[in-house]
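Troubleshooting: if your tokenizer reports a length mismatch, compare your output against this known-good record of 260 residues.
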Amino acid sequence: MQFLKKNYEKILLGLVLAGLIGVLVFMLFYIASDEQAMNDHANIVLNPSATKLPDLDLTTESNAVLRMQSPYVLDFENSNKVFNPMEWRKAADGTMVPVATLGAAYVVVTNIQPLYLILALKSVTTNEFGTRYLVTIERQAEKSSSKRRPSDRYVSVGDKNDVFSLLAIKGSPENPDALTVKLLDSGETISVLRNQPYKRVDAYTADFLYNPEKKVFLGRRAGDKIYFNNTNYDVVDVGPDELTLLDESNQKKTTLRFSP
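Known-good structure output:
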């Protein structure tokens, strides 16, 4: 006991030093272990042992994108009969036909003919009053049928009628090669040859048919009125290759092409 009392401070200091030495030795082993653990984790990250995942199958998604680029269009106006039931009407022969297959769009133009202004030198008359020329005039485009028939006019140089004025004679006055005349409606100067009448297209007539009612229209010209499909129509215009009809009920114009 006397030894402990005299040397306890040295003994306590020795124990503390021994403890510190033990801690230092433990730290060396702990640091080495921790470093090894860190290296193991680094190897796992840098050199993973996991197998590669298979490529994703995006076929369904790709097909959906393609469908979006070409969307499917539903026709709820023409072909669909649930939302737009088809209207039917009795035709002239008693059969039922869809209203959608009726109207001016189903007119078929079968022929178009030109209407001429024709001037022809018919004869020459010479007497004591001078030389006069008999010219036949035919105005096929006139609205009045009575004015469409050929009519004769006697003229001398300088004379004027309702169609033309005679300006001059080419060749012998008694046997001219041609007459030089001025048309009053256009102001145009033309020649009427001895053996070749002058012709100018002034308008056209059209022949057409409406199959749903088996109706045939012949020689119709601009200004004529016709009736089919329970509707009044006006012939608005007839051109060299087309016919234009006007529906009086709604003022809708329909132009129909003529293909010989």
